[in-house]
Amino acid sequence: MSSSTPCADNGYQVRSVAVEIDAPASLVWHVLTDTDNYNAWNPHCVRIDSTLKMGDPVAMTLVSYTTPGRLEHVVEYLCAFEPEKLLSWEMQAAQGWPYQARRDQVLEAAGENRCRYFSTDTFFGDSAVHVMNLTGVWVKRAFDDVAIALKERAEELYRRPASPDLASPAHEQMRDTMLRYAELLSSRDVDGIVALFADGASLEDPVGSQPLVGYASIRQFYEAGIDATGGTMRMQPEGSVRVVGNEAACAMIVTFDTDEGQTRVETMDTMVFDAFGKIQSLRAHVGPLNFHPPGGRA
């Protein structure tokens, strides 16, 4: 994951207006990453198709700011994903296409339940000055419109009275998140795992241990687990996901390789979700009786 901050060493950068948003950064981040609903609020980018995994394509449908009524299709690649801080994608130069650029969308804390947002587009390479001259004005206008629309969307969601639809995500979404969690753990995708959690989420694995709170601690836990098992850890659901209210549970089988063979672990994972389908807490119910080392030794 990239931890770099937006910069423009060559000076050819477009920067949007910075907006103060009266809503938590977690909610604004949800709006930015809820790509299925971009057409409900975004005046410039009306569709995104992407896994939002590092290095994967970000296929965008953009409203043209130079030709009214025209839609343009652009593919860039995700280069930064720092929950509630930074979302970035970039266009790399290639043979016959000497244009390199990076889009950064930045969130900064601005007090309790408030944050600040701005975005930049940085043009690199020998063609940067020409790209800036040709596109800078309309890119600035488009990014300003997006910043203002994001503020309006997030504040409207934050002010919206609680309702059954807002208080609890769809059961299908919670089920899919739990299944996605198992897939991401098996593929050693720590960025993807962390992105499933809400800001301030807790992880208690196993139940009875000291809960870990926040992105940094949760990230460290999974990185250590993957390293300790040599990248061989796999997780598979054992039966269906059970969902009630804003909670889900599923029995899981975890396996990993050692010099002596494969170890098998039985765990019952429970998750509590926030209104936007992010994991607020994860607890792994597992004890000594659930560990089965090679050869069946207790």
TrEMBL record:
CDD domains: SRPBCC_4 (cd07822). Residues 180-280 form the SnoaL-like domain. SUPFAM superfamilies: Bet v1-like, NTF2-like. InterPro entries: NTF2-like_dom_sf, Polyketide_cyclase/dehydratase, SnoaL-like, START-like_dom_sf. It comes from the Bacteria. This is SnoaL-like domain-containing protein. It comes from Parahaliea aestuarii.
